[in-house]
Design goal:
There is one protein chain. This protein has helices at about 25-35, 50-65, 105-120, 120-125, 140-145, 220-230, 235-245, 260-265, 275-285, 300-305, 320-335, 335-380, 380-390; strands at about 5-15, 20-25, 40, 45-50, 95, 100, 155, 170-180, 180-190, 200-205, 235, 255, 270, 275. Helix content is about 40%, strand content about 15%. Strands 11-10-9-8-12-14 form a six-stranded mixed beta sheet. Strands 1-2 form a two-stranded antiparallel sheet. The chain has two domains: about 1-65, no CATH class; about 105-345, Nucleotidyltransferase, domain 5 (2-Layer Sandwich). The chain has about 400 residues and is an alpha/beta fold. The radius of gyration is 27 Å and the shape is globular.
């Protein structure tokens, strides 16, 4: 489908790379190919609108969805691409009615360099309860968790030149409750961070009896699992899920996700190159060297940073949607650091204001309790008042 050519009265300029185009058709084709000005461009109709609001109206009336990068709260900062070459697009650019970013080949290279630079140091990962490669060399590692012994945890594979793996991947696992207060993997999703290609999206047959399917926050139910197992459409336990993950990554792959420490522990995987969107955004609020007093959830980050609503308002998790949403948050944070800092300033002020209010409320509650105790003591111990009244002054 081509856009009818219309001569512009003045050269059209891309607001991202500042490249000029003679016609509306030319700049539209450029934006479709590069995902520049994504908050004004309808990829499906190949139309460029004058404002984000116009695109929102178009999506609401024509497609009944909103673009993932449209934000009414924060305006994205300009991102300069090193070129305008286009990449082959995947079929997985939409999920549950939301549109997700597709990167050009040139943008992929730029984003990858930014991603590597943003990976968390070992000290931060350790504080956030990640297992690191060095843990396998610690004699006390197995003693800390007697059931999940050292031998069951595996490092991600060494790179093989004859079998190249993905440079960056997004991981999301859905986990259900098992005896002992732990969890077992019931689904796994892995997507290529740079291309958005879906590499793994499968249910996982749990190895131990599930006592809590957490159906209120997951789309995986006993009926769905039983059907998948009966039709041999589920991976065999967390080991099978781990094998699938390691088919696509090695120790040089950057793993991206939201609170990945839980996913990696459930898979018994140890990996060193991590970008955790929960840590990334919390560090923006509190500082890279500071204690992270709070971690923001994926749904909240999507809504506050991207004006993107996931999980259809029900709160139920879908592995593919969560993986694509985590990728979108990471991309936004890497590309729009000025806007991330703006959000962090407002969020930090709100956090400390709420902390002060909570402390004041707690102090008032303590005062009320103390006063109640004092009054209660006076009523129940009349002998004390009588003794004080008859006591001889000193």
């Amino acid at each position: 489908m081509t856009v009818p050519t219309r001569r512009a009265s003045a050269p059209q300029q891309c607001g991202v790379c500042s490249k000029s185009f003679k016609t509306l058709e030319a700049i539209t084709n450029h934006c479709v190919a590069t995902c520049h000005q994504a908050d004004r461009c309808c990829q499906q109709c190949r139309r460029l609108f004058g404002s984000p609001q116009a695109l929102m109206q178009h999506n609401d009336s024509r497609h009944r969805r909103r673009p993932a990068l449209t934000s009414t709260k924060l305006r994205p900062a300009a991102h300069r691409a090193s070129g305008t070459a286009s990449s082959s697009y995947t079929d997985e650019s939409t999920c549950r009615g939301n549109i997700y970013t597709r990167l050009s080949a040139a943008d992929q290279s730029t984003i990858y360099d930014m991603l590597v630079s943003a990976c968390h140091p070992g000290g931060r990962l350790k504080k956030e309860r990640y297992r690191l490669p060095a843990d396998l060399r610690e004699e006390s590692c197995a003693a800390r968790e007697s059931e999940w012994t050292q031998s069951r945890y595996l490092l991600t594979p060494k790179p093989e030149h004859s079998l190249p793996k993905r440079k960056a991947a997004v991981l999301d696992c859905e986990i259900a409750g098992i005896p002992g207060g732990r969890g077992d993997v019931v689904s796994i999703c892995v997507i290529d961070f740079l291309t958005g290609e879906v590499l793994v999206n499968s249910l996982v047959k749990p190895r131990r009896p599930i006592i809590d399917w957490l159906c209120y926050c997951s789309d995986v139910t006993p009926a769905i699992m039983s059907s998948a197992v009966a039709h041999k459409q589920a991976l065999d336990g967390w080991e099978g899920a781990r094998v699938e993950l390691c088919r696509h990554i090695d120790e040089d792959t950057v793993l991206v996700g939201q609170s990945l420490n839980y996913d990696l522990r459930a898979l018994r995987v140890i990996h060193g190159k991590i970008l955790d969107t929960a840590i990334l955004t919390a560090e923006a609020v509190f500082g890279r060297e500071k204690e992270l007093r709070r971690l923001w959830g994926l749904s909240a980050l999507c809504e506050e940073l991207l004006d993107l609503r996931i999980r259809n308002g029900s709160g139920a998790h879908d592995g593919l949607e969560d993986a694509m949403a985590a990728r979108e948050v990471a991309l936004w944070c890497l590309r729009h650091q000025v806007d991330l800092n703006m959000w962090a300033i407002k969020t930090r002020q709100s956090f400390w204001r709420n902390q002060d209010e909570e402390e004041e409320a707690a102090e008032e509650e303590e005062e009320v309790e103390e006063e109640a105790k004092t009054q209660g003591g006076a009523e129940t111990t009349p002998w004390k008042a009588e003794a004080e009244a008859t006591a001889t002054p000193t």
